[in-house]
Amino acid sequence: MPHTVNSSLLKKILVLGASLFAFGFGVTGCNKTASQSPRVVRHHPAKPLYKNGEPLSPNAALSTANGHNNGSAKVNTGDVQNQQAATGGAVTTSGNADNAAIAKLQSASGKDGPIKTIGLTGIGINDAVGVALARHPDIGRANAVVAQGKAQIAIEKSAWYPTLQYSVNPGYNRYYSSSNNKNDPGNVRGTVGASQLIYDFGRTSSRIGAAQATNEKQVHQLAGTMEDVAQNMANTFIELSAAQDLISAAERETGLLRDTHDKISQRVKAGLSDASDLNQAEVAMERAKSDLLQATTRFDVAAGKFAQISGFRPTKVATLAETTRFMDSLSKGKDDIDKTPAVLAAEAEVRASQQRVRLAKADRFPSVSLGVSQSGATGQRNATNDSTFVGLQLSGQFSTGKREKYQIEAAEAELRAARQARDNEQLVSRTTKGSAETEERGASARMDNAKQLMNLSLSSRDLYWQQYTLNKRPLTDVINAERDTFSAESDQITAISDRLYAKVKAYYAVGQLVTRLRERS
After folding, report:
1. pTM
2. H or E segment at 37?
3. Which of 63, 365, 366, 384 is deepest in the core (most CB within 10 A)?
4. Could you tell me where the beta strands, DSSP code E, fall in 4-78?
């Protein structure tokens, strides 16, 4: 008899479980099949390559969002020295209606592109920025945050699907037992059930909307992070290129002063110049060597920073003239302040705050669900232990301390703060763009002035040397003219680099730096 009763209970639980599964499948089947979710770009950090125990330059996996390429860059030092292979590509994407905005921001097209070889010697600013984007860990962190936000959307949407509950509780049964002995410890009570949310006054939809807006914000922050990395690397590259040109100028100054020293030495031996002139020339040479050491130190500092970002230390990069031609060839693009990553992220935060206000207001009302459950216990059937329930469920809570009121006030204050933050980002972008344009105009004017000054100094130097040989001018004037030539060239290099800084800053202010560099790549 106990075996028959236990079998009967097991059959009832199995039949009920099958019916609940069919119920859940039917509810789920009523929904339209969603298309594949939009892609979430992921960054794979690079790892060093090793061959014969010697460390090679790191691999770099390039993952970008907002329409940028997704690929990988590999740096090797093997049979072909100073060569870097970078594999570029793009990842195809698809999206659904609920996340159209996110899909638009993350969209990219095309398959893996051709392999691109980058020469480490004379590397350009666009390749340097590409390597930085491929390696920087902050981009990987931002990609992980985007993936987390995408998962949060799915979590919030799951509230609209049926929830299954089950429990099996062994213990005493004081109502009956198979052996007609009270408090038989062998009894088992089981329950299976399901519930389907019907209406909650906008609570779930607000949570979904807030999660979607937050994910949009994270995508824009990813684009902003890429802009930050690109600007940092571009500025480092410009500093490195300027130091390289300054070294060349200092070497020219040292060489010219050495020639002057040799000429004066010959004149002293011939009795045409005084020995004090030779000492004066040696002092000028030492000063030129100091300028060279200072320029070399500046290059080493910039190269060290470059190596920290890119993973390799270049011995030579593109000159300022080459970098200027490249930057001048970039398309101007759109200068819409309202479309920068920072402003778009602030706009998304405003939408998320609006949804949180709706959520706070919806928390004042209950939620309505449809529930079904079946309970059973071992032994003979008893109304207390074996029961079936199908009906509506109403749940909610109300705080006597006016918690709901204060939650609404807090959410509304958060919304006001988000709107102020959006306006502040617009102001910052507009101010940055205006200052960059002013700095570029000023640097261009300084470039022209330095060029004229350098030409005049060169003419004066040649004239002063001729007059010195005729004993019509002291050697000090010749050395000062040489010094003025180097100073004018240094000023011109500084003005060129400042103009490039300003151009990078202008593209960064409108969130177009990565886009413009990518077009040229």
Report:
1. 0.71
2. none
3. 63
4. 50-51, 54-55, 59-62, 71-76
